Amino acid sequence: VNPLRLAAHLGLAVVILAALVWYALDSLRAPQDRGGGAAASFWRRAALLLGLVFVTIVAGGLVAGTDAGLVYNTFPLMNGRLIPAEAFAGTAWWDNPAAVQFAHRMLALLSALAVAALWLHGRRLGVGGGLRVALHLVLAVAAAQIALGVLTLVNAVPLGLGLAHQAGAMVLIAMTVAVLHRAR
């Protein structure tokens, strides 16, 4: 399968899942006024996090499509280097396993930092109720997803761990949607 088509297919599936989660949450809870100031700022940050998690997952589809998880099975460095020289080989980056794996790693790191930053922002604002629970859950799911991703990589992507990592990505996007939904 062409890696770009696989990533596009995955991206569409993630959009459908996110919409289903959003509408399911809508049916469980009446929408509330988003408010202004700090609430609007929090909502924008949560929306940015959702976009970043989405891009990270699509990059994961490129990892699967190029079999990039089968190379550079060390962490945190890629066979002793932060950025392998092969990442800048003459091929298009989305067809280059070194570049794809590096991009997915960096996006995952940015996503993790963004989750932690949003969690801290929520604590500073003193959010409560369902939003507080959703923030705790997205933080826990993100930590588990990172651990699962590293385990999957260093073990050269055994089927069970690979499937668990993909399922974890779907749970992470669903929890991120829940945070955004609760932040309204």
Description:
It is globular, with a radius of gyration of 17 Å. The mean pLDDT is 93. It has helices spanning 3-28, 38-66, 97-125, 129-154, 159-182. It contains 5 helices and no strands. It is mainly alpha-helical and 184 residues long.
Shape, per Cα inertia axes: globular
Please identify the structural class as seen in this structure.
Answer: mainly alpha
Report the count of strand segments: 0
N- to C-terminal distance: 39 Å
Element order: H for helix, E for strand: HHHHH
The level of helicity is over 70%
* Uncertain regions spanning at least 5 consecutive residues: none
Task: Name the descriptors.
single chain; mainly alpha; globular; 5 helices; about 75% helix; about 180 residues
What is shown here, in short?
The protein is an all-alpha fold and 184 residues long.
Topology:
Blueprint (H helix, E strand, L loop, with lengths): L2 H26 L9 H29 L30 H29 L3 H26 L4 H24 L2
Helix pairs in contact: 1-2, 1-5, 2-3, 2-5, 3-4, 4-5
